[in-house]
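Hi, here's the filled form for the chain we discussed.

Project: internal
Contact: R.S.
Residues: 298
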Amino acid sequence: MIISASRRTDIPAFYFDWFCQRLKAGYVDVVNPFNRKQVSRISLKPEYVDCIVFWTKDPAPMLKGLDALNDYKYYVQVSITPYGHDVEAKLWDKKDIISTVQELSERLGRERVVWRYDPILLNDHYTIEGHLEWFKNTLESLAPCVERCVISFIDLYAKAKKNTQGLNLHELSEEEMNTLAAGMSDIAKGSGVTLQTCSEAIDLEKYGIVHGACIDGELVERIVGKSLNVSRAKTQRPLCNCVESFDIGQYDTCIHGCRYCYANASLERARQGFDNHNPNSSVITGNLLGDEHITLHE
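And the returned structure, exactly as it came back:
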């Protein structure tokens, strides 16, 4: 069993103490986002969990609590992008986040820290040239710390279009994607960092950039040290190469304030979810009411 923590919210940044409490309790409850009475109770006992995959934009809160994970295999994906507070309203200075990733890698090793350059967006301020310059400078700091960098290009879904009004973003053309890919590939040559895409239709293999996976079965098996009977995730987007996992997050609970985020209806809704967090609850926000149908997964 692989635990995803989480596509839906930033557990390491905002809920890591709660997560450690759930490890002690041995389970976590996840409410169906479309029907609150349907709850999955997912075992977190070490004997049932093969690997945990963390997703975060700020792993600093994890550093003081890594001992809680001693009985588990895991890796950490960290999104680091060049955007300022006009796009990522509540994030710390990127230099501080990079320093945290460097420390995290020292403690975990390069294979267990993944850099996500995600999503790549363009407007009059965030240009192709600006992306390549920022990528070059950041890669110099992160190359000793990571084995791979996962890139993706922004998809302007209806929710993203609404929340990014005023930024004047556009869907990237194939020409723009190819220009970015070629430039990033040239920069990465000799760095020891491989580039992969996430859920992208475009073929960039001529630049040495392969279709990757965030919940990567091969990487999980490397970290776990054995073969696992894992299959491709059926509920993700058609272009997603991730293997099956249980996501323990909850939508509308991440308060980084990233304008492009698909996991929040709005920052206001996310703030409400965050404010309703009970560190002693089995769910991230609120509490179970007692009328739920609970299905156990272990």
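Let me know if anything looks off before we file it.
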